[in-house]
Amino acid sequence: MGMNRDMMAKLQQMQQQALKAQEDLYAQVVEGTSGGGAVRIEVTGGLAVQSLSIDPEVVDPDDVEMLEDLVTAALNEALQKVQGLQTQQLSGLAGQFGINLPR
Q: Which of 34, 43, 42 is nearest to 71 (CA)?
């Protein structure tokens, strides 16, 4: 039993919309911060680190661990935001086609 033309057209439309959603996601940039903004990191929706800035005030050669913790916290915050964007994109796309995703 083959697919009818309407089904094929709908699948092609879904594929095009999924590719567009992925492109849109990759173009978005989120920011994660820690230490009251002393460490800032920008990550794209494609999970590429775009920039990292560190306030010189928090650079203490005797306490590298603290700086590592601040960078890790900022990165984790940014990655959580990307995950939120991904969920939002997927939910929107699924909703267009009448698919209910579990929460």
A: 34
Do the domain assignments include residue 25?
A: no
CATH assignment at residue 97: 3.30.1310.10
DSSP per residue, the chain: -PPPHHHHHHHHHHHHHHHHHHHHHHH-EEEEEEGGGTEEEEEETTS-EEEEEE-GGG--TT-HHHHHHHHHHHHHHHHHHHHHHHHHHHHHHHHHTTPPPP-
Q: How far apart are CA 78 and CA 49, in angstroms?
A: 9
Which pair of structure tokens corresponds to residue 59?
A: 């650079």
Q: Does 89 reside within a domain?
A: yes
For the chain, give the mean pLDDT. 88
C-alpha to C-alpha distances, 2 to 13, 20, 21, 89, 93, nearest whole angstrom: 18, 28, 29, 31, 26
- 8 versus 60: which is more confidently predicted? 60
Of the pLDDT bands very low, low, confident and very high (cuts 50, 70, 90), residue 101 is low
